[in-house]
Design goal:
binds zinc ion; two-stranded antiparallel ribbon; 8% strand; 51% helix
């Protein structure tokens, strides 16, 4: 069960970080309007098996900006951390106790993408995995990815797509 929780926390945060339509899959901003946002957020919430609550689109955009800044500049960016704390203050969580299981933090009135993402960030930070979230080094891509390498040395979201492109560019500049 913990492994599955990790996977969903990471996948949810990556979906959120990349929801602006980054990289080679550039396209729609999933937060462009209320309908697009609902089509984006509801499957991410339903995956938890809980019922969905109301999400604020302006606050979700703020959360995305804030998380992108934290991932890009590291977790010591004090402005981005202050913004994250401000967003977190507006959430209301309670413990839900179930038989034969640990207690989960749940939200009043159903789960929201913002509430889930905040708990995902807390979980990854607690587990020392937050710094594995990175932004692809290819400036034409900038997709967020999770570095699974032991030494945390992965530079591109996909070596095949962006690593090769960078190699080609380096080769070109050397031979120019
Ligand atoms: Zn990339």
């Amino acid at each position: 069960m913990p492994t599955q929780q990790h996977a969903s926390a990471i996948n949810r945060l990556l979906a959120l970080l990349n929801s602006g339509g980054v990289g080679f899959e550039r396209g729609v901003d999933r937060m462009e309007n209320a309908e697009r946002f609902d089509a984006f957020r509801l499957p991410l919430i339903m995956g938890t098996g809980e019922k969905a609550g109301e999400d604020s689109l302006p606050l979700a955009r703020q959360l995305r900006d804030c998380l992108l800044r934290l991932v890009q500049h590291g977790e010591d960016d004090p402005d981005a951390l202050a913004m994250l704390n401000q967003l977190s203050k507006q959430q209301s969580f309670h413990y839900f106790f179930a038989e034969a299981s640990d207690a989960d933090l749940r939200e009043q009135g159903g789960e929201t993408l913002i509430g889930l993402a905040l708990r995902d960030v807390a979980q990854l930070r607690r587990e020392g995995k937050w710094n594995r979230l990175k932004i692809c080094a290819n400036p034409d891509c900038k997709a967020a990815y999770f570095d699974t390498t032991r030494a945390r040395t992965q530079r591109w979201h996909s070596y095949a797509v962006c690593g090769n492109k960078a190699n080609v560019a380096a080769f070109r500049s050397r031979t120019a």
